[in-house]
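Bumping my old thread because nobody answered last time. Still need a sequence for this structure:
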């Protein structure tokens, strides 16, 4: 039984088989921008999720767009952050990865919090991500600080609070208290504003 092209590509990506990847994408360049059966990610997004830095670099060199989103618009940097791959996230940032904060699912900072990665949170804050944006879609006034508290990510929350307060201790205390209230509201769906 012959394997399908997507199965061959997935196998090569999973194995970090760079010669096979180069050959497959040279023979099938349309696959560089195709959405895969992995949540509609591009192959570069899939490689970012798997933490395959060499594959991400190879695909980018072959012409894959590091900012092409999945079916929800989440870019590869979100996949790298969500799965805690700091090396991939750092490389994507160095190559100009866009930091989309329009909706929570596309926010790499939320991805880093989900991925329990203070190092990626630190990188994103240093890169200038808007840590104060609030979401009202499926959340009640939720920002990254409240999300970190909601997820029980104390170290990520501390980094975000420090960043937002810029050294002002009183402001840091106020931001944490407010974020705790917001996290509590979001933890209990019946208390959310409709």
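Sorry it took so long. Here it is:
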């Amino acid at each position: 039984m012959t394997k399908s092209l997507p199965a061959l590509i997935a196998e090569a990506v999973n194995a970090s088989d760079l010669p096979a990847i180069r050959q497959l994408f040279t023979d099938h360049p349309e696959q560089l921008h195709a959405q895969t059966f992995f949540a509609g990610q591009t192959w570069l997004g899939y490689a970012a999720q798997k933490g395959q830095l060499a594959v991400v670099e190879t695909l980018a060199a072959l012409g894959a767009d590091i900012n092409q989103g999945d079916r929800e618009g989440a870019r590869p940097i979100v996949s790298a952050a969500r799965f805690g791959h700091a090396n991939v996230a750092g490389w994507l940032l160095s190559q100009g990865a866009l930091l989309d904060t329009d909706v929570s699912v596309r926010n790499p900072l939320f991805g880093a919090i989900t991925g329990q990665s203070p190092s990626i949170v630190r990188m994103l804050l240093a890169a200038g991500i808007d840590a104060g944006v609030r979401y009202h879609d499926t959340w009640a006034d939720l920002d990254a600080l409240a999300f970190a508290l909601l997820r029980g990510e104390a170290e990520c929350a501390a980094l975000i609070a420090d960043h937002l307060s810029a050294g002002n201790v009183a402001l840091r205390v106020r931001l944490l208290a407010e974020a705790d209230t917001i996290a509590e509201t979001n933890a209990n769906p019946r208390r959310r504003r409709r």
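The longest helix spans residues 169-187. Let me know if any region looks off to you.
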